[in-house]
Design brief:
This is Helix-turn-helix domain-containing protein. Pfam families: HTH_59. By secondary structure, the protein is an alpha+beta fold. It is built from 3 helices and 3 strands, in the order βααββα. It has helices spanning about 15-20, 25-35, 55-60; strands at about 10-15, 45, 50-55. A hairpin with a 2-residue loop joins strand 2 and strand 3. The protein is globular and about 35 Å long. The chain starts with 10 loop residues before the first strand and ends in an 8-residue tail after the last helix.
Length: about 70
Amino acid sequence: MVKINLNDSDIMSSQEAAKLWGKAPDYVRQVLRSNPNRFPQGTVRLIGRQIIVTREGMEAVTGHKSIKKF
């Protein structure tokens, strides 16, 4: 079983990630809906109605590191 540290700053809500990358609040949800294969396997997950994404996933989708500090 894989253990995930939820206190890791590389794991965040989709809204927090969008803000850090300077995107619209629903950016991750839109990309996930229209083209889920842009996220590398294991970098995004829907938990209930909340989308959780990793820094690696956001960097892959946007093509750059966050514009704001973590």
